[in-house]
């Protein structure tokens, strides 16, 4: 393997993976190399451009920490996250559709009783949220758990506030014996994804904005059903047709009704897909 040139280097790299024990890893690496090399050939990548790409990825690495995940953001704005969600969530008619997870989920969020105010001091207009969790045959899913998270009126998640000690506008709830849930929070507003780093610079260089339409995140889990990761969007929000991360699905857009006292009411029913036998929840 010497004197490789632009015509035979791809095959040489592919051959170098021949001894990969894990067949899936081998398939992914070979395909990745084929597509990467084809991309470089197609755009006739210069050495200077290659180095700029390396610098860009380095900046993504430097700005990433346990609160900021620039690589997920990059995947989101390139549509890779939503493509992966779309390919892996073919559900029967009637099931609630999935959308992007995003970088602001926090494991082990505070647990609340039904009816509690999960805003916990977050700035925003009060909003009641309620609905049911059911299966595809209409059966109530008693005790389903709902993880909920959202940004505040300033468009920031609690984890983006430097000095905040407690969780705000996020929590875990458990549906009652008839699959019903309800809680209080604040109304969602559109917000800009973090754009003070390399991904933001890329958006700016390409004339794209960093905004997401107003939404509330849910992760709904129950034994015997596929876990659902989704959002509910506000029908009257800006950016529904230009979401920076391509996550809007019409079935997830709904009316957040203004009440006589100026607060809001969001009613949304979830339908979970039964888990495949032997598959993950
Ligand atoms: C979110 O909705 O929390 C989100 C999704 C993708 C990128 C940034 C934020
Ligand atoms: Fe969000």
Structural notes for this entry:
- The protein is an alpha/beta fold and 281 residues long.
- The protein has six helices and twelve strands.
- It has helices spanning 9-16, 23-43, 47-63, 70-77, 80-88, 198-205; strands spanning 126-135, 145-149, 170-174, 180-186, 191-192, 211-212, 215-221, 228-234, 253-254, 256-258, 264-267, 270-272.
- The strands form three sheets. Strands 1, 4, 10, 11 and 12 form a five-stranded mixed sheet that branches. The protein has a five-stranded mixed sheet with strand order 3-2-7-8-9, with no helix packed on it. It has a two-stranded antiparallel ribbon with strand order 5-6.
- 28% of the residues are buried.
- The model has no long low-confidence stretch (mean pLDDT 96).
- The structure holds benzoic acid (BEZ) and fe (iii) ion.
- Benzoic acid binds at residues 73, 76, 100, 102-104, 193, 212, 245.
Rounded radius of gyration (Å):
22 Å
Oligomer state of the chains in this structure? single chain
* Span between termini: 47 Å
Secondary structure class reads alpha/beta
Q: What is the H/E string? A: HHHHHEEEEEHEEEEEEE
Please summarize the sheet with the most strands: 5 strands, mixed
Small molecules bound in the structure, each named once: benzoic acid, fe (iii) ion
Number of strands: 12
Helix content: 25-40%
Would you tell me the overall average pLDDT? 96
Low-confidence residue ranges? none
| Total count of helical runs of at least 4 residues | 6
Share of β-strand residues = 15-25%
**Overall spatial form:** globular
């Amino acid at each position: 393997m010497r004197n490789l040139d632009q015509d035979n280097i791809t095959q040489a790299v592919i051959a170098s993976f021949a001894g990969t024990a894990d067949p899936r890893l081998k398939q992914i690496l070979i395909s990745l190399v084929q597509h990467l090399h084809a991309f470089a050939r197609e755009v006739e990548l210069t050495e200077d451009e290659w180095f700029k790409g390396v610098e860009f990825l380095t900046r993504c690495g430097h700005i990433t920490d346990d609160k900021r995940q620039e690589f997920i953001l990059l995947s989101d704005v390139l549509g890779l996250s939503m493509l992966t969600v779309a390919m892996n969530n073919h559900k029967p008619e009637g099931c609630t559709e999935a959308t992007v997870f995003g970088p602001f989920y926090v494991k082990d969020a505070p647990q609340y009783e039904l009816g509690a105010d999960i805003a916990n001091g977050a700035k925003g207009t009060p909003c009641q949220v309620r609905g049911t969790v059911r299966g595809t045959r209409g059966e109530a899913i008693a005790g389903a758990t709902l993880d909920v998270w959202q940004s505040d009126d300033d468009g920031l998640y609690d984890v983006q506030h430097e000095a905040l000690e407690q969780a705000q506008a996020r929590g875990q709830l458990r549906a009652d014996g008839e699959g019903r849930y309800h809680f209080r929070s604040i109304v969602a507003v559109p917000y800009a994804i973090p754009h003070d780093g390399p991904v933001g610079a890329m958006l700016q260089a390409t004339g794209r904005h960093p905004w997401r339409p107003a939404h509330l995140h849910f992760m709904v889990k129950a034994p015997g059903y596929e876990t659902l990761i989704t959002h509910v969007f506000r029908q009257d929000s800006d950016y529904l047709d230009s979401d920076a991360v391509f996550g809007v699905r019409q079935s997830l857009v709904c009316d957040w009704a203004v009440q006589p006292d100026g607060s809001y009411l969001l009613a949304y029913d979830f339908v979970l897909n039964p888990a495949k036998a032997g598959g993950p929840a």
